[in-house]
Structures are given as C-alpha cells and as structure tokens.
Write a structure and sequence with these properties.
Blueprint: E1 17-24, E2 30-36, E3 39-43, E4 52-56, E5 62-67, H1 74-80, H2 97-103, E6 105-110, H3 135-150, E7 155-160, H4 162-173, E8 180-184, E9 208-213, E10 229-231, H5 234-239, E11 248-250, H6 252-264, E12 273-276, E13 279-284, E14 289-294, H7 301-308, H8 315-326
Parallel strand pairs: 5-6, 5-7, 7-8, 8-9, 9-14
Antiparallel strand pairs: 1-2, 3-4, 4-6, 10-11, 12-13, 13-14
Length: 327
C-alpha cells in the first residue's frame, strides 16, 4: 500500500471489432455476424465518479473485478498482478492478453476515489479508510453492469491491501453480489468486531480466499499470526491521516475461524494446514474457504509472488484461477 501514489492519468482505449461466422438470413443465405476481439474499454457506472478500465477478452466466461490498495490506482494494480506491462498506463499493447485469453477472463479495474482534503489517498470506504464515496453501492452497480453489458455471471471480487479490506466488507455485507471473494494482504476492518456492524454473509456464504505474508510490514503480521487484531503500521496512517477511519484490522487467521463458523458451522485449527514450499494452506467448508500464509512475504503483490516461488509473477493470479475453477 503506497500512500504517496497519486491518481494515474487515465487513457481512453481503442475498441477493436472483427467480422466472422455466419448465420442464416430470411432468404436462406448467410450473413456475416460480428465477433468480439480483445478490447480495452474505458467506462463509468452511472451515478458514480469512478473511472473503470475493462480488459475485455474474446470468449471470456468469467470476470474478475480488481481493487487497488490505498494510495494506488487502476493501472498500477494491473501491473502488480502481472496483467499489464506498464504501471502507469494501459493500452492494448501493454495488456497480458495471453493470460486473459488462456483463462477466459475479462478483467474489470475501477479507480478508487479520495477525500478532497487528501488527494494522495485514493482508496475505498471499507471502515478502515474512507474514499468519501458509497463504494458498496458502486460495486453492486458495477457487478450488475458487467452482467448486463457482457453477459458474465461468474464474477470474482479481488482486492489488494485496502482493496482487500473492501473485498472483506462486501463478503460480510453484500455476499451475493459476487461469485467469490479474494483478498491479498487485506484483512477485514475491526469494525466487524462491533455489535452494531456484524459480519453477516448469510447461510449460503460465497467462497473466500485470503493470501497474506507472515512478514507483512504494513499489517505487522510477524509473530502475530493468531492475534485477534493487527494494527496497520502507524507511519502509513500518518501519511494519509484524513482518510483513515480505523487502523486496526482483524487478524486473517482469527477471521477465517469466524468465517468457517458462519459459513458451515465448522472449526479451524491453527495446526490444520498443509504446506507446499513457502505456503501454508488452511481449507474449510469443503474447500470454499481458503487461507494461504506465505512465509517470508511482505505486503506487496510482488513479494507474495516471489515467495510463492514460480519463475513468473503470476503465482497469485494462478492461485486465484485455481480457486475460481474449483468454486
């Protein structure tokens, strides 16, 4: 979470179309039917100020809505997860269409907003921070628009850092909006420990996967894996003080125990994990709830990828796709 970042310049993208395929017309002949090619679309949702980039993939069968962290922007987060070769701009030439095409994924990346008094703190209203916007309603409307405009009903909400905290808020408060939820180094706000704001995903809670490092210097996870709460590093909070509502978050393992109880009346033991390389994985509720502890990983996506151990920077995204395919 880089609180010094400012809002990146948004570029309008060119739309490409091609013709192909055939269909019968009323005279018994054939007509050429348009088919969709990979496109970069820049759009908005009516009633909301958020810019949205859509990496529209030909033949996509599912979508991922990706939320950046506090102080971040929509181009940087796509770069961080390996789906854009530029951290500052997006064009059809910079997008990793090979991965998107292979996985049949359309990527939807909205731009978080900021308080007028704190322009560097682009974020989400997730109880830890505030953007000054009703981001819950925005994400509900965005999901509806993706379903309506692109015919995609399988939509994953995924966020890093404060985007992950927003993902947690949606899992708790608007569980049916998305098909599944993935948080990268973004625990739920401790607001959900309060009686007035309980986490209530419902009896048919959607799948959730959390991935976080045990050396996260922002969430201060080192030596505190089973702690009930973690405190966001004070130096980060001071850099964007106006945007912070509460810098205490719920420890991911502690919250995963609560999720397990809520989703399937199950229990989760601290020793009940499997280990592959640097990653410990807890799985509960028939695999619908997954938590991955990445040994030696810091807060950034690059650190999570590096410690998860593959040659490319797509370890996180491959884990997300495996989870989506299974649930």
């Amino acid at each position: 979470m880089n609180s010094t970042n400012t809002l990146a310049t948004l570029l309008l993208a060119a739309s490409l179309s091609a013709c192909g395929g055939g269909g019968s017309d009323s005279s018994g002949g054939t007509t050429q039917q348009p088919t969709v090619t990979d496109q970069l679309v820049s759009t908005t949702v009516a009633g909301y100020p958020h810019a949205v980039n859509i990496y529209r993939t030909a033949g996509a069968t599912r979508a991922i809505v990706l939320l950046h962290g506090g102080g971040g922007d929509l181009n940087a987060v796509a770069y961080q997860v390996g789906l854009n070769s530029s951290a500052t701009t997006a064009t059809t030439a910079t997008i990793n269409w090979a991965w998107l095409d292979a996985n049949k994924v359309t990527l939807v990346i909205p731009q978080g907003q900021h308080l007028a008094s704190n322009p560097g703190a682009t974020t989400w209203s997730n109880y830890a921070m505030t953007s000054g916007q009703d981001d819950k309603a925005f994400l509900q409307a965005l999901a509806a628009q993706v379903r309506s405009d692109y015919g995609l009903t399988d939509i994953t909400l995924m966020g890093h850092s404060m985007g992950g905290a927003m993902t947690n808020r949606m899992w708790c408060e608007s569980n049916a909006t998305f098909s599944r939820y993935v948080s990268l180094a973004g625990p739920a706000s401790s607001t959900f420990n309060q009686a007035a704001t309980p986490c209530t995903p419902g009896s048919t809670a959607a799948p959730y996967m959390g991935i976080i490092g045990d050396a996260d210097s922002i969430m201060q996870t080192a030596g505190a894996w089973e702690a009930a709460t973690w405190t966001v590093n004070p130096t980060v909070v001071l850099a964007s003080i106006e945007a912070w509502v509460d810098n205490v978050v719920i420890g991911e393992f502690h919250q995963q125990q609560a999720r397990t109880a809520q989703a399937c009346a199950g229990t989760l033991s601290s020793s009940g994990y499997t280990t592959t390389g640097n990653v410990d994985t807890w799985s509960s509720c028939l695999g619908r709830l997954v938590l991955k502890r990445v040994h030696g990983a810091d807060h950034g996506v690059a650190s999570l990828d590096a410690q998860m151990g593959a040659a490319s920077n797509l370890d996180v995204m491959d884990a997300v796709m495996a989870f989506a395919a299974a649930h």
